[in-house]
Specification:
single chain, alpha+beta, six-stranded mixed β-sheet, 26 helices, 19% strand, protease, repeat, Znf_RING/FYVE/PHD, thiol protease
């Protein structure tokens, strides 16, 4: 006790502003349930596993720790599972995983000799008792920052509800026996609250659902609100009302009046259909990885180094699938595991290692690759062959990697590709002072665009990227005869699409990956191109190639496209992906003998007309969703008018920008010379760099995008070189080698949109394919090579 009293100055009583960690070690995945328990530093309130707490003592000199140990309570094996009533985890009414309950025990430890004192004890100094009680009763920082419970967002009152105009058509809706007015559908029916039309709902990507008649009716009439028949009961708030302009489920406070207009007495109606939220809940409740992936297959669980599952934190499967593949690359393994120990990363970390990306990447790498946490969840699971693991929760990694990103820091589902690109950028910036150690370089390659003017002269643009995003040319399908026969058979039998799918007889287009790659490098026309040689606008030809081949080639399949009316559609297509590909034919050769560069001298009026202008259709679509007009214009401009989905993603990521409400400015009175110098270092000509910075308000990133999206601006002074000429420093740093690659990773997606559904990863390890589905890991017997969303290839040297 005297030893404790002599160290009282190193004990703090937590303030409300203190972040208290007591559920997970900040440099490993040890928890109070681990064999050695967890030690909470009573000065910094950081937590450490038994093997790591001495490192903290050596670094900080803090000697007093609260030791927390959890042991499972004995519970009946037949404890019934509670049916969830909320789409939530860890809250009343949410999912019950039937996990055991735990008893917690506490004691005080004084380092370096691990002297133990009991707690609670009246003999402890009052300051220690108060400090420990505060820690024990506090909500841990892990829970505050990465809430394990997530719930569906509360519905908002529709902006159209109070002003809804209803047509006096005399239509009276019967209490049952409904059918779509345009087809034979009798389920998933929606009543338009303006004109009383009963129409079927949207068709899902897999053919289930309706035939889109309700949404098509909205496009024709702009009547905004519809209610799902079968969800109307005496509890009107529970009815499923959908607003097409707001693209969301909403509340209609005048729903009783709107229903009475069509003779509907809601008080006597019975519930016969699931609401949208209930259907989502049901899908989550019934989620079964064996059924969704490799259904009917006996998946053999696998444990050990490199076979550690990741706990789903709530819609975090996009992160789990991506990081499993990333940590199967030699570059990330070397950087954050084999060549960097946990102790080394901790010693380099700032005072709070939970906020250090290098520390949390190293923690994640060691967690996934050491095998320490790759063990069956329970002895029962091990005996029955269940692929469940305890897994490791990537909370601290997610907190630090997504800290500055509004979407990735939320609990909503995200696009795995977007996360990969964002993560690679963060890793690159974190390693900017030591580029030789940067593992993200292994994904990078150069892209060169050649523009051929009718004059015969050329210009070249270069940029770096880390993915090849490939369009899918459906006209290159190899099974056209079977598709034609299938469509004729379907038409002849008058079958519904989902009826055929139920019998598993559907024929989908099969497009070779080679056709997608060939499409990427094929020539395309640039309309209204200003030629400095012809001194006028004309049509030019653009071809694209790669100036270098990365260590790891990432291919993104553009399966999500926008149909007419900006309706997203997922292409129902198979991609035939071979185990080995050769992209040698995709290498760009640069300026060739006999080629003449386009001259300088683009007129100022041409430069003026090349300033980015927002696409009015994109802006109108976003405004109709409720976004601010100015914000929508900025989103369209900053995504080069690529499309509604790209602009919306930009909007969601930049809603909190301090200049989001500032007027759009294409010019600044002066250009910062340091920004010019930065663009010069990229290989751009000074006059082009200055014009780009003026057009982009001085923003270097936007200026770079502007140059690449305005080929008229970048002419002969651009970095133009043949393949054997000296390259710029940025390009010379890129890895390069032969064009042969071997498939080793697949991130697959199931669902109607990249922002919903589920992601899993399949990875080739030790000569066999392994499926990583959150915390479940098993040997794959049928990897979905033709159904991937993102493919990862490793270059075959020699």
């Amino acid at each position: 006790m005297e030893l404790l009293r002599s160290n009282l100055s190193r004990v703090q009583i937590p303030e409300p502003t203190h972040r208290i960690y007591k559920h997970e070690c900040c440099i490993s995945f040890d928890t109070p349930r681990s064999e050695g328990g967890l030690f909470v530093d009573m000065n910094s309130f950081l937590a450490f596993g038994k093997d790591y707490v001495s490192w903290n003592y050596e670094k900080t000199g803090n000697p007093v720790y609260l030791h927390i140990k959890q042991t499972p309570k004995s519970v009946p094996e037949d404890r019934p599972l509670k049916k969830p009533t909320l789409l939530a985890i860890g809250v009343d009414g949410g999912f019950d995983n039937n996990e055991p309950e735990y008893e917690e025990s506490y004691s005080i430890f004084i380092l370096p000799d691990f002297v133990s004192l009991p707690f609670p004890s009246v003999e402890l100094p009052e300051k220690v008792r108060i400090a420990v009680d505060t820690v024990v009763n506090a909500v841990g920082a892990e829970r505050k920052e990465q809430v394990a419970a997530w719930t569906a967002e509360k519905k908002q009152v529709s902006q159209h509800a109070l002003t809804l105009q209803q047509i006096k058509s005399g239509i009276v809706i019967s209490p049952s026996g409904w059918k779509c007015a345009k087809c034979d559908k009798t389920e998933n029916l929606w009543l338009n609250l303006t004109d009383g039309m009963i129409l079927c709902g949207r068709k899902n990507w897999d053919g289930t659902g309706g035939n889109n008649h309700a949404v098509e009716h909205y496009k024709e009439t702009a009547y905004p609100l519809a209610v799902k028949l079968g969800t109307i009961t005496a509890d009107l708030e529970a009815a499923d009302v959908y607003s097409y302009p707001e693209d969301d489920s909403v509340l209609d406070p005048l729903l009783a009046e709107h229903l009475a207009h069509f003779g509907i007495d809601f008080s006597s109606m019975q519930k016969t259909e699931m609401t949208t939220a209930e259907r989502e809940l049901d899908q989550n409740t019934n989620f079964d990885w064996n059924r969704i992936q490799e259904s009917g297959k006996e998946l053999v669980p696998i444990f050990g180094p490199g076979y550690t599952g990741l706990v789903n934190l709530g819609n975090s499967c996009y992160l789990a699938a991506t990081m499993q593949v990333v940590f199967s690359t030699h570059s990330f393994i070397s950087r954050y595991f084999s060549h960097q120990s946990l102790k080394m990363a901790f010693e380099m970390a700032p005072a709070d290692p939970t906020l250090d990306l290098n520390m949390q990447l190293t923690k994640l790498g060691h967690g996934l690759l050491s095998g320490k946490y790759s063990i069956p969840a329970t002895q029962k699971d091990a005996a029955t062959g269940d692929a469940s693991q305890e897994g490791i929760p990537p909370r601290m990694f997610k907190n630090v990697i997504a800290a500055s990103h509004a979407e990735f820091s939320s609990m909503r589902q995200q696009d795995a590709l977007d996360f990969f690109l964002y993560m690679v950028g963060k890793v690159e910036r974190a390693n900017s002072t030591t580029p030789d150690l940067d593992p993200s370089r292994s994904f990078k390659f150069g892209i060169e665009e050649k523009i051929l003017c009718p004059s015969g002269k050329v210009s070249y643009n270069k940029r770096d990227d880390c993915i090849l995003s490939l369009n899918i040319p459906l006209h290159e399908a190899t099974n056209k005869d079977e598709l034609e026969a299938f469509n004729k058979q379907k038409a002849g039998k008058g079958l519904e699409e989902n009826d055929i799918r139920a019998s598993d007889e559907i024929v989908r287009p099969r497009v070779p990956l080679e056709a997608c790659l060939a499409n990427f490098v094929s020539s395309e026309q640039i309309e209204d191109y200003y030629s400095s040689a012809l001194k006028g606008r004309t049509t030019a030809i653009k071809t694209t190639g790669l100036t270098s081949f990365p260590d790891y080639l990432v291919l993104h399949m553009r399966k999500f496209v926008m149909e007419e009316g900006w309706v997203p559609k997922k292409l129902d297509v198979y991609i035939d992906v071979p185990d080995v590909i050769d992209i040698s034919h995709m290498r760009s050769k640069g300026l060739q003998p006999g080629e003449e560069l386009l001259p300088d001298g683009v007129p100022e009026e041409v430069m003026e007309s090349a300033k980015p202008v927002a696409n009015e259709e994109i802006v109108a679509q976003l405004v109709s969703m409720g976004f601010n007009q100015l914000h929508c214009q900025k989103a369209a401009i900053n995504t080069s008018n690529a499309g509604v989905e790209e602009a919306m993603n930009w909007l969601l990521s930049h809603m909190d920008d301090p200049d989001i409400d500032a007027p759009i400015s294409h010019q600044t009175s002066d250009v910062d010379q340091s920004s010019v110098d930065t663009l010069l270092s990229f290989g751009f000509a000074e006059d082009v760099a200055r014009k780009a910075l003026k057009a982009s308000g001085g923003d270097i990133e936007k200026a770079t995008d502007w140059i690449f999206n305005n080929p008229n601006a970048s002419v002969s002074d651009m970095d133009v070189s043949s393949s054997n000429s000296a390259q710029t420093p940025a390009q010379s740093a890129l890895p390069d080698g032969g064009g042969k690659y071997k498939l080793f990773g697949i991130v697959s997606h199931m669902g109607t949109s990249v922002h919903c559904g589920h992601y899993v990863a399949h990875i080739l390890k030790e000569g066999r394919w392994v499926i990583f589905n959150d915390s479940k890991v098993g040997i794959s017997t049928d990897p979905p090579k033709d159904m991937g969303y993102v493919y990862f290839f490793q270059r075959i040297d020699g």
